[in-house]
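Re: Re: ligand-bound prediction request (bumping)

Still looking for help on this. To restate: I need the protein modeled with magnesium ion bound, output as structure tokens. Inputs repeated here so nobody has to scroll up.
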Amino acid sequence: RAKREGPGRSTMFDTSMHDQARQRIELEVALRQALGQNQLHVVYQPLVRLETGMPVGAEALVRWEHPERGSIPPGLFIPIAEDSGLISQIGGFVRAEALRQLGEWRAQGIVSDSFYMSVNVSPRQLNEPELPLVISGELARYNVPPQCVALEMTESVMVDGSSVTAQVLFELRQLGAKLLVDDFGTGFSSLGYLRRFPVTGVKIDRSFVTGLGKNEQDDEIVRAVVAMSHALGLFVIAEGVETPLQRDALFHLGVVNGQGWLWGKAVPPGEFAEHWHLAATLPDVPPIAAVTEN
Ligand code: C2E
Ligand code: MG
Ligand code: MG
Ligand code: MG
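Reply:
Sorry for the wait, this slipped through. Here it is.
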């Protein structure tokens, strides 16, 4: 039995191959039960306009609360879900729940008409030909317009994707959903992929945001991503924004939207509605600083 320690640490002491394999199998077995036993939950992190700190949308993120092990981080179980195929069920649960929640918030006037829900989709889900039909059914059911849903995929989808995946992406785009490339810059995609696939935007990976305002190379990378994205008519959002310095640097580099602990972490729906409803008091974050010429 795993000892209960910090999140995800519990079984990480032993790094021998045998124990790793064993831990994986144990987690997979537990994950299979998690869905049926209501151990999976969806939390929501605000996506904001950098300039104002006002929410423009939310990213839905899955959480696993195991009755004995406590909370298990997605970084640990999502790869297992992907390898075992469980990701289709888990991803489907998260998406349906997030769209249901968005429909409720829209009906209650908690969010604006243009507020969008961003959901992660794994390569496996994008290889299922029925996905566009399933999503359009959910949109109708929850009374959510297609432009209010964004699907986040990794660059690997464009690099390794099958012809089924290409077809699914085109149908999703035709439906009117936004298609975002998540963790942009960490994979092996190129300008060519962004032109060939019907993506609508990129999420600049946190690793390029961390050093902004301090590391000139990161500033140059973000500058290049913004220039390229604008040339292709793509929307840009930066993830992992933790400090006003990073936010200001992004703003002056031409990035309009961001996500990060500076504004808020992912929280359960009740808390999200309370803190981020239309009339909410915004977090106490200093205004954008003027550019300092050197
Ligand atoms: P992601 O899609 O890139 O999500 C952003 C991650 O960065 C989230 O981690 C979020 O909590 C974290 N984050 C946001 N702002 C900050 C910040 O300012 N600083 C730092 N240090 N971190 C920040 P989380 O929730 O642990 O999720 C990790 C990854 O697991 C996600 O990365 C995504 O790839 C995957 N994931 C989560 N939920 C789902 C899901 O429903 N389906 C699929 N396929 N993958 C999911
Ligand atoms: Mg994401
Ligand atoms: Mg991301
Ligand atoms: Mg990321």
